[in-house]
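> forwarded from #structure-qc
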């Protein structure tokens, strides 16, 4: 058996894979948060509940409508994104001129309501969601067996994250979004419907969380509390990467997932707190995060 630093190779590489998987979810969830905060200046504490809704949407599409996993990767984020658009228009749009604290408190209350509704309807026990046949099994990499579905999650998350970064940073639509956050009246003077743009941006950030929820459904049990397991760590990831930084969220999400996985191998007692320890150290050195914009 291969030994690395006194650790069995399969154990080390297995934890690295788990770290990458957790990092994939951290990256996608923090990316949605970064999009919403960077463009709308709202701290969306309901993001974990919307992630959970993505999983439930996929589960419902399968069990009530008979729609499988791959169509759900498109339909579930679209449906949850529409719910996000409605929430933005009816509730969140009223808070843009107020202090960040009001948005945080409102979205925290929204998360409690959403989780409570699903808990009353489906209970707290997990609901199974089967891995699609084409993604079942494992691949022998020589040093470990990698489950195909878990590898798919990492690749899919990376593609979606990079595509989102490219849209925001490299396209005219992204340039318009960034300009609207800096000077909305000026952008509107050029004929751009800024309120509609803001609404669709919020819906897009919510859809990213729902997409992560669909990917998570076969790995974690679909239950009303599944977002709670991620959201605190995800907020730490956003702070470390820099509030509103798209690339910062991607790099910090995957990187911290790997660090967390390695910590479980070398010092398991610290695995639950290592992300927050990194956050403290980063904020002491760079208060705006690794990729945060200077004032």
């Amino acid at each position: 058996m291969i030994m690395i630093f006194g650790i069995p190779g399969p154990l080390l590489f297995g934890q690295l894979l788990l770290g990458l998987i957790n990092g994939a979810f951290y990256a996608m969830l923090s990316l949605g948060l970064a999009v919403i905060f960077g463009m709308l200046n709202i701290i969306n504490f309901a993001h974990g509940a919307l992630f959970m809704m993505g999983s439930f949407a996929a589960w419902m599409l399968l069990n009530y409508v008979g729609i499988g996993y791959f169509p759900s990767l498109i339909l579930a984020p679209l449906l949850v994104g529409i719910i996000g658009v409605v929430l933005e228009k009816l509730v969140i749009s009223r808070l843009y001129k107020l202090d960040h604290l009001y948005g945080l408190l409102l979205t925290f209350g929204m998360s409690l309501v959403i989780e409570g509704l699903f808990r009353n309807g489906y209970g707290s026990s997990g609901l199974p969601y089967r891995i699609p046949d084409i993604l079942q099994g494992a691949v022998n990499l020589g040093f470990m067996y990698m489950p195909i579905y878990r590898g798919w999650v990492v690749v899919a998350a990376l593609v979606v994250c990079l595509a989102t970064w490219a849209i925001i940073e490299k396209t005219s639509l992204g340039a318009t979004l960034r300009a609207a956050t800096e000077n909305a009246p000026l952008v509107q003077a050029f004929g751009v419907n800024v309120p509609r743009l803001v609404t669709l941006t919020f819906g897009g950030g919510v859809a990213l969380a729902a997409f992560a929820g669909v990917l998570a459904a076969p790995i974690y049990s679909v239950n009303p509390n599944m977002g709670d397991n991620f959201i605190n760590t995800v907020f730490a990831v956003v702070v470390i990467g820099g509030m509103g930084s798209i690339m910062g969220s991607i790099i910090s999400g995957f990187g911290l997932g790997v660090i967390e996985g390695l910590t479980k191998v070398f010092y398991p007692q610290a695995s639950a707190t290592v992300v927050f320890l990194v956050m403290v150290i980063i904020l002491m050195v760079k208060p705006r995060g690794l990729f945060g914009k200077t004032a």
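QC bot note: Residues 9-40 form the longest helix (32 residues). Residues 30 and 238 are 6 Å apart (CA to CA).
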